[in-house]
Design a protein that fits this description.
Oligomer: single chain
Structural class: alpha/beta
Strand content: 15-25%
Number of strands: 8
Distance between the termini: 78 Å
Shape: elongated
Radius of gyration: 26 Å
Largest sheet: 6 strands, mixed
């Protein structure tokens, strides 16, 4: 273990950038340094439960037909072990269709490998790996989910070549922190991202760094890029973009609530009119003006 990493302080961890931001996440794992490559190999190996020997990185962008994904998702693609491929995605907020999205992207990734002249058993594995920062997708209290084709009635696996892996940070129970020695490699990475994102439980992060070489390498790169003015500037831009996205989301929710309230008031006014209440009574009961009530009554008469 590196002496520099073994002496890292909690204060030093607190001063680093958020590794869950787009620019920082990519800087950690795609920097042209041995530490960055070792960190990415460690992350992929932990997710697929097999050792990755060598790895080639390629950056991805969401396809143009899904431009909204650029607001809350970013990813890194890589090839390894003589043809296997993985897409590693950092998702700020999961959506209801997260499973459909993952299935779509794993299909795209799997179809990218050349198959001409190959036999079926020579087709390589493909993995869609999603780290979810907020709003878990499965919501069952488990932070790791691995999906593959499976006959659930007869309990038979297809033994196919694709896997979808969700690492769900919100499902980590902070009140039940295990000893680092009892954590799986996946759990160590999940807690690293979660606590470095929130800057909570940094003592746990420090213990993880001192016991997981791949995460130690990621931290070493994180410390280095956190001092890079260009990365810091881009991270600030990422934070602003996410803040704006959250604000717009809340604004849309409020508008929807307002629309719902207005529709409810109008329906109440219609019911009052059907009951034969006077304009004054309807106005007092709903807060609507006489003019607004007359329009509602006219619509009722017309319909």
């Amino acid at each position: 273990m590196s002496k520099i990493i073994s002496k890292i302080t909690i204060q030093a961890l607190r001063e680093t950038l958020d590794p869950c931001l787009d620019s920082v996440f990519k800087a950690i794992f795609t920097s042209k340094s041995p530490e960055a490559k070792e960190a990415l190999i460690s992350l992929v190996s932990s997710c697929i439960d097999r050792e990755v020997v060598d790895l080639e990185v390629r950056l991805n962008e969401p396809p143009p037909d899904f431009p909204e994904d650029k607001q809350i998702r970013f990813d890194i693609g890589c090839k390894f072990n003589d043809g296997e491929a993985a897409n590693i995605e950092m998702t700020i907020v999961s959506c209801k269709e997260e499973g459909v999205r993952a299935e779509y992207y794993i299909a795209r990734l799997h179809l990218m490998q050349p198959t001409k002249g190959k036999k079926w058993h020579e087709v390589q594995n493909s993995y869609q790996i999603s780290l979810i920062i907020d709003r878990p997708f499965v919501k069952d209290g488990n932070c790791v989910h691995i999906f593959e084709y499976y006959d659930k009635i007869n309990k038979v696996s297809l033994n196919g070549k694709t896997k979808i892996i969700f690492l769900e940070l919100p499902e980590v129970e902070d009140s039940k922190i295990k000893d680092v020695s009892e954590m799986s490699a996946k759990e160590r990475w999940i807690r690293f991202f979660k606590y470095m994102h929130s800057k909570n439980n940094l003592k746990v992060v420090k213990d993880i760094i001192e016991n997981e070489r791949g995460i130690a390498m990621a931290t070493q790169v994180l410390q280095r890029v956190s001092k890079d003015d260009a990365v810091r500037f881009q991270a600030l831009s990422d934070e602003k973009r996410l803040t704006d996205w959250w604000r717009d989301l809340e604004s849309h929710k409020e508008e929807a609530r307002d629309e719902g309230r207005v529709e409810g008031i109008i329906e109440t006014a219609k019911n009052f009119a059907r009951m034969g209440l006077s304009l004054k009574q309807i106005s007092e009961g709903t807060g609507l003006s006489t003019e607004e009530i007359n329009k509602i009554i006219e619509e009722l008469a017309y319909n």
